[in-house]
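User: Can you predict the 3D structure for this chain?
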Amino acid sequence: QDPLPQGALPIGRPIDNTRLYVLDGHDQPVPIGVAGQLHIGGAGVARGYLGLAEQQAERFIASPFNEGERLYRSGDLVRQRADGVLEFLGRSDHQIKLRGLRIEPGEIEACLARQPGVREAVVLVHDAAPAGPRLVAYHTGEPQLAEVLRQALLARLPEYMVPALFVHLEALPLTPNGKLDRKALPTPELPARVYEAPQGDTEQLLAGIWAELLGVERVGRHDNFFELGGHSLLAVTLTSRLREAGLEADVRSLFEHPTLAGYAAITDRMEIVL
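Assistant: Here is the predicted structure, written as structure tokens:
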């Protein structure tokens, strides 16, 4: 049996006369281990919501697996382990649409909560000029280096689901009812970095492109592309600009080495290998 990852809550298997399905946004099954929304079928499913046609159409669907049966969209984000046990990851009510992509914050939060020292995690979108909308992760427990958390998430999630900023809190803000108060989460601030001017041709070229793409006045050697407002789409644009300048560039390497000096060094190394 697979060990239970930290931060995941097992909810077991279906009871008699009940069928459980983990489906994606198109009501299609997802592979084992992949997050999806829990759909419930079988004898215990209600006929619908009386007098609430819109809510009924959203929550109840015709089963694509058993003719004449209806499924209930629970709103719970889960995944199925190899042994068949379902793990609860969070709710899908806070689904995010960012740059045309649908993102389940619960999936990111569950990955963060599995990291040693992380007790709780909340992910949401913060929109502020000049960076624009970007993912921000709030976490409690032991203080963590942002780069350590970013690399841990990159090993489990696609690049576009990795938050740009990580904010450590002593405790998550709660409402008088004891629920998470999302509106009380602090506005994220960029980490304070001592400016150091770019060195060498590659760093200077990168700094000019970064400043233009990110809308900032200047970029130092230790500035982080994603903390300044970069994201996966801008990363693609950046690599295209570098190739136009005759340099080999790789999007994944930018996520793994997001500082100006780090990415310049890996870019120079790629040139030498070629």
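Helices lie at 53-59, 105-113, 146-154, 200-214, 232-244, 251-256, 260-273. Residues 1-7 have pLDDT under 50 and may be disordered.
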